[in-house]
Amino acid sequence: MSFVATKKLTAFDYVNYTLLALISLISIFPFIYVFSVSFTDPKAYIPLKFYLVPDQWSLSAYKYILSTNSFMNALKSTVFVTLVGTVLNIIVSFTFAYALTKKGLPGRPVMLGAVIFTLVFNAGILPSYLLVKQLGLLNSYWALIWPSLTSAWSLIVIKSFLESLPAELEDSARIDGCSDLGVFLRIVIPLSMPAIAAFTLFFAVSHWNTYFNALIYLSDSKKWTLQVLVKTLVIDSDSTGVGQAGAGGDDRIVPQETIRMASIMLAMAPILAVYPFLQKHFAKGVMLGSIKG
């Protein structure tokens, strides 16, 4: 017969758990409020009232936003930038980091020094804008993709992770006649799936939440990303910036606050939906590169 020893909770533990529970509740209340207001029926909505549960449920705000050309254009722009940008980020980051792990690579110290240099020094906003302008990328989706193909932090973490992989596996593959590209595609990539999943989430969230670069590089409102459009809804006082609603047979005027909250929910929903599927690989991928075995 076995007995499982249980730790006796102290007064400190109770205070600690209570404070953590209160902090958690305070943190989640804004999300509950945004969710509740977005689903509140326009007829039942009362300004300056705190909603935890909608008095009357309604999809009017979502129907209004999804029927506008502005929102659909912003959604398409964001999806394109996120998908294309994330794929290119993964390709450039992992190939570059893998090259930096090879000590016999010509010019490796210079390239590694340049990567580390950018961790400390940055050109700033104005030189970056002038560079994008000289490249002819203004008012183009590529202005949000090319300048951020990778980052020094990503390269260093991925390099550390790749260096932790057993070198014997690569040697065995080369003995079997595998080329350098074959080793990378058949050995390194399969072993790097947790890290790839983690950085896919990092890059995807970064592109999905792109706001400042889109604000300064995209002057055409039809090419705005979702975050720029949400900004105009949440901050600007005139909700007509959303665009004209499509024919839906609903002549009621949707309150501006419900439109704002619904747009915030729609902007958050894709990332919240994808994260649970990558959570396991995300946690594992973050830790793998921290210790070199």
Automatic annotation (TrEMBL):
Gene3D superfamilies: MetI-like. GO terms for cellular component: plasma membrane. Keywords: Cell membrane, Membrane, Transmembrane, Transmembrane helix, Transport. Its main location: membrane. InterPro entries: MetI-like (IPR000515), MetI-like_sf (IPR035906). GO terms for biological process: transmembrane transport. The keyword Phosphoprotein does not apply. The keyword Transport applies. It is a multi-pass membrane protein. It comes from the Bacteria. Residues 75-278 form the ABC transmembrane type-1 domain. Belongs to the binding-protein-dependent transport system permease family. This is Carbohydrate ABC transporter permease.
